[in-house]
Amino acid sequence: MSVQGRDVGPVSMTCEVLDRRRLGRYWGLTLSAPEIARRAAPGQFVNIAVSAPGTLLRRPFSIAGAALGGHVAGTIDVVLDPHGPGTDMLAGVPPGASLEVLGPLGRAFPLPQRRVSALLVGGGYGAAPMYYLGERLRAEGHRVNFLVGAADSSRIIDPIVPKRMATWSSFTTEDGSMGHRGRVTDLLAEDLETTAAEVVYACGPNAMLAAVGDICEAAGVPCQVAVEEHMACGVGVCMTCILPIHTRKGVQNRRVCVDGPVFTSTRIAWEESRYTETAHEPVDDDLDDRDASDHDGRGPDDSRADEGHFTAGVRTVRTGGRR
Ligand SMILES: Cc1cc2nc3c(=O)[nH]c(=O)nc-3n(C[C@H](O)[C@H](O)[C@H](O)COP(=O)(O)OP(=O)(O)OC[C@H]3O[C@@H](n4cnc5c(N)ncnc54)[C@H](O)[C@@H]3O)c2cc1C
Ligand code: FES
Prior knowledge:
Elements: E1 2-3, E2 6-7, E3 11-23, E4 26-32, H1 34-39, E5 45-48, E6 59-62, E7 65-68, E8 74-80, H2 85-91, E9 98-105, E10 117-123, H3 127-139, E11 143-150, H4 160-165, E12 168-173, E13 180-181, H5 184-194, E14 199-203, H6 206-219, E15 223-226, E16 242-247, E17 250-255, H7 256-259, E18 262-264, H8 308-311
Parallel strand pairs: 10-11, 10-14, 11-12, 12-13, 14-15
Antiparallel strand pairs: 1-2, 3-4, 3-9, 4-8, 5-6, 5-9, 7-8, 15-18, 16-17
Helix pairs in contact: 5-6
The protein binds flavin-adenine dinucleotide and FE2/S2 (inorganic) cluster.
């Protein structure tokens, strides 16, 4: 499908693994995926099929970069934190192998309509989509600042990338092995002032996102977060990934895979973000007055996939609350 000359919506592709590299504790994969790269925007994710014992469902991963051109016409990057059968299998896939990839999925970060100073906050592998967003913001003339945190320095992805890209960057680690000892939220209020941030974008563990949202709200700075919820189908069918969201009609459940993963932080009812059996509500859409004053809401809004391809054989699972 094409909207205003731009291809949108997800495609399913067999992608060659072009490169696999160690990124500290994580692994980075570059995949040949021209159709996905053409459609992708920062904040979106891909669903990758895995072939490990006992795995049925595809696994969701943020798009960490997309490039067009070159002899393969287009590539995407993902960063993997191996810790279970699917991520272990993917982290071991050698260059030359093929992976089945569906994407791009979900809604992208809305980009500012006017030039701003943006502070991008990444926690752990959540920094990966922030680097992709930083490139896009910088290409559009915005001032890009980074606050990147993790448990230790082996979980700070390529620190040279934000140092090169940003006007200003800062690092935190919980064990003090890089930058400030502590968490990103220790520094955020001060860094909002230092960077004169007019908008904050964040991706990381949900507890971090909730705290980042609170600090930004107290400072009066709009904040967009990319959340992570356990997923099954990834395309809006199974209701596994619901998150309670404040709407004009009160708190209603939304599907992270199609209504997110990007949300305005003040919309998320974190205190209620546990699974309830009332999840199966029709999705109306009054979501999209999100930050209308500061953002144009760009990013695919027609990224619903053809459900028919994905329902067969998909088991609905619910694997808990925040990670
Ligand atoms: C939008 C989004 C973006 C993500 N981006 C990244 C990324 O860039 N890098 C990365 O390493 N991981 C990312 N994750 C988390 C990643 O999808 C899970 O770590 C992975 O699915 C775990 O699979 P596993 O088989 O290794 O582990 P298992 O724990 O055995 O997985 C079992 C089941 O639980 C689901 N699951 C387990 N943990 C998670 C989780 N945290 N989030 C969602 N589903 C989960 C799996 O899909 C699978 O169905 C992202 C998740 C989401 C929703
Ligand atoms: S994973 Fe979101 S509806 Fe199935």
